[in-house]
Specification:
single chain, about 525 residues, alpha+beta, 6-stranded mixed β-sheet, 5-stranded antiparallel β-sheet, about 45% helix
Length: about 525
């Protein structure tokens, strides 16, 4: 034996045992420069055993190392010298303290701390508020998979219940001298008062015979309780089609990680992130599974948090819509967003299809289209439709003068109308043309290449390197706090990596030419 093992011996200065380039030092440098005023306000009238700024740094460093469980963080605080260095001789906090701090104290404050980091990165010259890459992914919620509530099924059951009430309530009302038009709540209240007035006692349990009055009252009460349950479910759903009973903010979505390989829907959130210079500069959790309706509120949230507007918005075809293009034009931002049919339009089959409206000759002077048979499709009227967010889309309708006897009739269109009718949004057509010019320019090609590297790469690091594939908390507020913590940790680690790899002040990856 070369020595005794009956006691733990540590140097007085733990910093001397930590590697000089460890990310914990950069984390401490950044965290010490943040303003924690809003965080400290949460403790004005409550006792605090630990410094909130220290607990925050502890949580971020745990997330940097892929530790998300409060019990595992508590264990690291007792065994890892880097966590001991952050504690600075303070006792290790228990898991309940850590969980309460993350879920209660940080909620509503974490986003402000995150944007303080974005501003710090801007001061370092890493973020220029110029090119922002936007993308989304579905992350599974911390909810049971088979606790779904479908709005369509709830509405169907409610309608059936209403029909049943309409059939039975008038009969019960007439039996006790009430009007046929009596409301359900009024009928229940009357029957209960009737029982008290005549001393009729409602009995319960086996072996006891219920009166007809009690049976009628209980039946109507059951109907009322079911109606209230259905109304509550529809209120929780709102504009969504579904939600989970164990996390009512989560919506059932189709996930890429399909371990059962049957396309089963799982409760989750549509997580949107914005990336610039490989750093996450904005996050948002949405309940709708499609990306189209998330872009505008997401960009407005980023602008509100950072107090800055980005020049170029780069996203994939999932964000292409007339509403999004119009919004970016009004904001003076360039939209490097690939049109939804961009890949299809490049195919030879599409270009050779003479019957498609995109390939027909358009007479701009007379506002009409010429079909392959030389027939004229004249402008008839405008039609209007609204998106889920309330944006009005105006489409122009053109009708052919006569399709009778046309040899191209069967190939040209299959419809119920005698003459061909086409509908087109000329605003969207011009926006597509402009978007194609932008994404096929030299800058557009470079930005599209960086989009696939930077924003999709960020999701790859989070899911693979950090093994973050499922939220540990429930409720949108808590899950957003958790993802903001993860994004904060991601940015600190990315800053260290860029400093060590010589990519500091290099916002874009250059295109490699053979």
């Amino acid at each position: 034996m070369y020595g005794t093992r009956n006691q733990v011996v540590l140097p007085l200065n733990l910093e001397t045992r930590i590697e000089i380039d460890d990310p914990v030092f950069k984390l401490a440098e950044i965290c010490d420069s943040l303003d924690y005023t809003e965080l400290y306000k949460a403790y004005i009238r409550t006792y605090r055993k630990y410094d909130p700024a220290m607990l925050f740094m502890l949580l971020v460093f745990a997330y940097m190392n892929g530790i998300y469980s409060s019990r595992e963080i508590e264990k690291a605080c007792r065994n890892d010298i880097r966590f001991l260095w952050i504690l600075q001789n303070s006792p290790a906090p228990d898991h309940a303290t850590i969980a309460h701090f993350q879920n209660e104290r940080l909620s509503g404050v974490m986003e402000k701390l995150f944007y303080q980091l974005v501003v710090k990165l801007s001061e370092l010259g890493e973020v220029e508020f110029r090119n922002v890459f936007v993308d989304g992914t579905k992350i599974e919620a911390n909810a049971n998979r088979y606790t779904f509530v479908w709005a369509k099924a709830v509405q169907k059951n409610m309608n059936r219940l209403y029909d049943r009430i309409d059939q039975e309530l008038p009969t019960i009302a007439l039996k006790y001298g009430l009007s046929e038009s009596t409301e359900l709540e009024q009928a229940i209240q009357y029957l209960e008062n009737f029982a008290r007035m005549f001393g009729i006692e409602f009995v319960h349990g086996s072996g006891k015979r219920k009166t007809e009055l009690q049976r009628d009252c209980e039946r109507l009460t059951d109907y009322l309780e079911r109606l209230e349950k259905y109304r509550e479910a529809l209120g929780i759903c709102g504009k969504r089609k579904s939600y989970s009973k164990t996390d009512t903010d989560a919506t059932f979505m189709r996930m890429k990680e399909d371990h059962m390989r049957n396309g089963q829907l799982k409760p989750g959130y549509n997580v949107q992130i914005a990336v610039e210079s490989e750093y996450i500069v904005g996050i948002g959790l949405f309940e709708n599974p499609t990306d189209t309706l998330t872009l505008i509120p997401f960009l407005e949230r980023i602008q509100q948090g950072s107090k800055r507007k980005y020049e170029n918005i780069i996203a994939d075809s999932g964000y292409a819509s007339e509403e999004n293009y119009t919004y970016l034009e009004q904001q003076g931002q360039r939209a490097y967003i690939k049109p939804a049919d961009y890949e299809v339009r490049k195919k030879k089959k599409f270009k050779n299809d003479i019957y498609r409206v995109e390939n027909m000759h358009y007479d701009e002077q007379n506002d009409r289209y010429i079909c392959p048979n030389g027939k004229v499709l004249n402008y008839a009227y405008d039609s209007h439709s609204k998106t889920a967010s309330g944006y009005t889309v105006t489409q122009k309708n053109y009708i052919c003068e006569s399709c009778s006897g046309c040899p191209h009739r069967d190939k040209c269109f299959k419809g119920q109308y005698e003459n061909r009718k086409i509908r087109i949004s000329q605003t969207m057509a011009k926006q597509k043309e402009k978007a194609e010019q932008l994404i096929t320019s030299d800058d557009g090609i470079l930005l599209r290449m960086n989009r696939s590297i930077q924003v999709e790469g960020a999701f790859g690091v989070m899911k693979e390197d950090y093994a973050f594939r499922r939220f540990l908390t429930r409720g949108k507020s808590k899950t957003e706090t958790q993802f903001l913590l993860l994004s904060f940790a991601f940015n600190i680690q990315k800053l260290c990596n860029r400093l060590n790899s010589g990519r500091f002040h290099m916002p874009l990856f250059e295109k490699m030419i053979a």
